[in-house]
Request: fold
Amino acid sequence: MQLFQGGSVHTFLKIDPRTKLFLLLVVNIIMINGSTAGAAAIYKPILACLPFVLLLTGKRIVAAFVYGIIFAMAWVTDQYLSGYLSGGINIVIALVSGLSTRWLPCGMMGYYLMATTRVSEFVAGMEKMHVSQKIVIPLSVMFRFFPTVSEESGAINNAMRMRGIRVGGGKGGVIAIFEYRIIPLIMSTVKIGDELSAAALTRGLGGEVKRTNFCSIGFGMWDILMFLLGTVFIALYFLL
Amino acid sequence: MGYINVPFRNSVYSAVLSAVMEDKMVSIDNVSFTYGRGECDNGLKEIGLEIKKGETVLICGESGCGKTTLIRLINGLIPHYYEGKLSGGVLLKGKQIHKLPIYETAKYVGSVFQNPRSQFFNVDSTSELAFGAENRGLEYNEIEKRVIQTAEMFKMEELLDRSLFQLSGGEKQKIACASVSVCEPDIMVLDEPSSNLDITATEELKKMIGIWKAQGKTIIISEHRLYYLKDLIDKVVYMQEGEVSKTFSGDEFRDLSVSAMQSMGLRPLELEDVVKSKMISLPTGGAELKLVDFEYSHKKGGRDALKFSDELVLPKGNSIVIIGHNGAGKSTFATCLCGLIKKFKGVVKDDKVLKNKERLSKFYMVMQDVNHQLFAESVLEEVLLSMDKPDNKTAEEILSSLDLLEFKELHPMSLSGGQKQRVAIASALASGREYIILDEPTSGLDMKHMKEVAQNIRSLINTGKTVFIITHDIELIIECGTRVVHLEKGEVRDSYVLDQKGIKKVWKFFQDSREDNVY
Reply:
């Protein structure tokens, strides 16, 4: 498991992480409100196409089409079919389609952000937005720790299976098994964390000079277009 | 031969001296240190040491002799990160280290640590190389220039822009060395840098240290494995119980006899000496274990894939050493063999065919990182947990056979690395399993503990167990191996008995690995 990407990312459209964050915010503000009255019935589905297009440019073709199809079905159901059904099924269908139209585009924008942005780009983006080092450094440690925790957890899981420690295996109750799983995980991540802090200090982290960031991010033509697009949608949302 | 080197100069004199004579890089003057937490970490007693500019210094001695503490003193982690009681002075180019904040010390001293997994701060390799330079606030263009230069110098362009989590241990350690190099410090300290590396990666490490030496860097290395440093060292500091017991010049150290090295508890400088000393008797006859269709890969085309379909017959009651280059499939082989991979379809035939699930209760793997497999609150409980029918008396017998009885009430996590590993072996014994797999059991162990592990393996075979050992440690192979399986690119390259002829083959594999530095 890893939030954001480690190695290089191939996309057709290179967008600055700050722009992606802005678009994520725009999609969230507009889509989560469930109203589809008036102009919203037109600009919402158009906005919902944005994650679809962006995912295509990020070479996440399958994810893009799965999202596109589910959203289209949910939208059609929500808009045109829910009136014709009745009873329990109606409630379930209305609920599923309503939730999908609201949350799915937000989720996919988030997925796009994670799938096409490298950790270092995201951190550079935050530094350029003048987010405090007190937030940036713990966050970068967190990103670095996600894969570590899942590696460690996998190894511990293997060890437990080999020793025959499992629920219902006769070796301790559920709580004991939780303990067997959690304690080594905490122990090893604490140890890694301790060694990591020592290593980071010997490489000059925490000095008085302002850190630079060796990661080339910056706004280009597409960023300007995306900002304009996002602003238009926000204006539509608040003015109409 | 060596002489006792405890110069008692007062710090004022020393400070003046260092200021005047520029070639003194590090001078440690009558330093004593005790850790504040009162843990098992070992302190230092009245250390006196001078290191000149451009010297390559080896610090050696048994585990717990204070090597690591001495390294921490030079890179400023003591007293700023590891707190405790410090007396005496450490001068770095004439400056008192304990008065400098660590980020200042970091400009002069670059550190490489033991564990490649826990010393990188970023997720991708290029950011990691740039990290130290970023912390010093260097300009973008300057960082770029240095990163590219460093990558060229160490011939590692192909490692740029990669996720560090996809790299092998050796590649990670290469990144660690390079990222220190980007900051261009005058002094490099390395704390047991080869502990988790295989033969080929150790050879790469040697080359990197060689490049630093050619650049005129002052290099200080604490290490158990000595052979790869043979041609590099100018000075050797031998420590015992927190004191500098002897110092040698490089030539004096290279001239030491095999027995002198052994009596100091040091691993050999010349591995050919080890190969000559093989003594173990080979078990004869007995039942066989048959392996067929060992084909598995975690990811399509991923590294460490396994693909041999022909039958591999192995005699039981042996200690079977699995060797091969990095990515040859050794660890995949081990996890498949003990039944941990559900999708694995290969056949393991004992008296009858053993399915994955059955193998889980017949095989026991002692993992490279034993921290992953110790769960209980005391050593005794740990052993009892492995038994189908917990029985205090048998458990205590097992503990006493591994010299662990005195620790039975302690928490496993409070023990040293070697002791933890013995606890894992104890629980393997308690489980009564027929097959025991050890994954790199001696990485980072000193001579004494390596011999202990070898002794434990020999006694496992004597009780009729079959032991598989994945290792790069030729000393361990010679000490306790009886059979070799050589994997390469997922296939069985060779499988032979470890008699005199077998030893020659292993030795050849080892030498080939040293020469062919391709991962």
Summary: Chain A has two domains: 17-118+218-239, 131-202. The helical segments of chain A are 17-32, 40-57, 61-81, 87-116, 119-128, 133-162, 174-202, 221-239. Chain A touches chain B through 59 residues (CB under 8 Å).
